[in-house]
Amino acid sequence: MTKVVITGMGALTPIGNDAPTFIANLMTGKLGIAPITKFDATETGITVAGEVKDFDPKQRVGKKAARRMDLFSQYAVHTALEAVEQAGITKENVDPYEMGVIIGSGIGGLTTIQEQVIKMHDKGPQRVSPMFVPTSIANMAAGNVALTVGAKNICTAIVTACASGTNAIGEAYRQIKEGRAQVMLAGGAEASVNEIGIAGFAALTALSKQTDPTKASLPFDKDRSGFVLGEGAATLVLESEEHAKKRNAKILAEIVGYGATCDAYHMTAPDPTGEGAAHAMQQALLEAKIEPNQVGYINAHGTATHANDEGESIAINNVFGENSSVYVSSTKSMTGHLLGAAGAVEAVATIAALQQGKLPANVGLENQDEKCKINVVKTNAMPVNNLQYAISNSLGFGGHNAVLALKKWSEQ
């Protein structure tokens, strides 16, 4: 059976503009949530977000190329190039027809859509940019990444709201496992911290109205008041073990299982029984051929909405048992909710936990909700013994549930 391994990671987040910085800040509990600076958000009633800070597209994307991309595509290309560099992927050691791309996004080019609709309204339809469609459509993160790295195998986009990044990695895992590709670039990208993004989620009453950044994103806390919108991207390089070893690539971790289900319950609310999420976790464990008691860490979806956190906690208890010792944390407590990029960024966080034998904390948790009966990590970079397996959960509007099962790499 083909083993699927990870050989490269790239990340652009509210707590670091590359994977090493993100991981270092993650393990020290750095808060990436701060007052919104991208626009005057006063009228939205929302004051904080998880913004990417000091992003320079010239660093990796290039000034000329960036002009032909929405910000979400710039984020995707930036992280893909970091991941490819770490993996040591070159034209000489990878057949372009054996390398594919699956990048998810919940919304796509929302910044471009907003700008061009305003321009059409103010100046007429003749003034809409000819680049409007090719920059705003949700598949262009994947398209631009493939174009940049020369990947000629499957190139597709996953749009499953907040599960997009995890579904993208899971489907890329399947491509390799089933022999359709040797290398896949997979992840998620989102750039929706703008007027229409904040206003839209605020209208749903989904966002926290907290003005204090330290109290805005509180997954599993009884005082939680909604999620904080974040932005960014992450990309993983997945390879068959055989291909990676042939190139003498350094292996970071292994993907051993993937689960994907649908609640078929409600447009935006998760099933309060947690049934769909539990089935996705069970699917991932079944494919990994492991028992629940072998999992040492769960990177929870944990958005800090009452419905999500309660439903996910019930789902975890249904799979692992109500008195399970498995540790759980939501890194959205530090980054905010990166929508379609969340699962990819959290996969990086989960891989880092496996590599270091340390768990990122659920920052800010003071009063755990009694309805969330899970073993939440409260200490930054908490060391754990013999951490071999971890899972990462993503749950999205539309009832989408996606779960990755990851294993610490060791030469067998």
How would you sum up this structure, described in words?
With 412 residues, this protein is α/β, with parallel strands linked by helices. The protein has helices spanning 19-27, 63-66, 71-87, 110-123, 132-136, 140-149, 164-177, 195-203, 241-246, 275-288, 306-320, 332-335, 342-356, and strands at 4-12, 34-35, 48-49, 99-104, 155-158, 183-190, 232-240, 253-262, 295-299, 327-329, 358-359, 375-376, 382-383, 389-396, 400-408. The model has no long low-confidence stretch (mean pLDDT 97). It catalyses: a fatty acyl-[ACP] + malonyl-[ACP] + H(+) = a 3-oxoacyl-[ACP] + holo-[ACP] + CO2; (9Z)-hexadecenoyl-[ACP] + malonyl-[ACP] + H(+) = 3-oxo-(11Z)-octadecenoyl-[ACP] + holo-[ACP] + CO2. Its EC number is 2.3.1.179.
Q: Characteristics of this structure?
A:
globular, 412 residues, two-stranded antiparallel sheet, Peroxisomal Thiolase, Chain A, domain 1, alpha/beta, 2 domains, fatty acid biosynthesis
Which CATH architecture of the largest domain is right? Answer: 3-Layer(aba) Sandwich
Main structural class: alpha/beta
Percentage of residues in helical conformation: 25-40%
**What would you call the shape?**
globular
| Uncertain ranges | none
Taking Cα atoms only, what radius of gyration do you get, to the nearest Å?
Answer: 20 Å
What is the CATH superfamily classification of the largest domain? Thiolase/Chalcone synthase
Q: Strand sequence of the main sheet, in spatial order?
A: 5-4-6-7-1-8-15-14-9-10-12
Largest sheet: 11 strands, mixed
CATH topology of the largest domain, by name, is Peroxisomal Thiolase, Chain A, domain 1
* CATH class descriptor name of the largest domain: Alpha Beta
Average pLDDT, rounded to a whole number, is 97
The end-to-end span amounts to: 14 Å
Q: Total helix count?
A: 13
- The overall strand count is 15
Count of distinct structural domains: 2
H/E order of the elements?
EHEEHHEHHHEHEHEHEHEHEHHEEEEE
Strand content bin: 15-25%
